[in-house]
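# nightly structure sweep
# worker-07 picked up a monomer target from the shared queue
# config: single-sequence mode, recycle default, output format = structure tokens
# input follows
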Amino acid sequence: QVQLVESGGGLVQPGGSLRLSCAASGIRFSLYTMAWYRQAPGKQREMVATITGGGSTYYPDSVKGRFTISRDNAENTLYLQMSSLKPEDTAVYYCNVRVDLLHFWGQGTQVTVSS
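# output follows
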């Protein structure tokens, strides 16, 4: 059974930094592309970063240069380092993996950027 457990969210001031973690189990972690998504109130869920098993990354323009996705295949853990945070980054952040045709999600972790 695939399980994803996020941690590391919280309240941070604009311009601050935060690192999210996602512990994965139930999959051969190193084989799969992993992703971070976020969903703000009243908005659709959007992808903010992806990383392949080999470490290739992708970011949309909205976070490029501010967010860094990484993974530790030995520890089955995914990370998202966020810096220069803005109020519009406020959202629930989710870890994601697609296995065959199924998407699996963690429970999410709240990130609030506010002074």
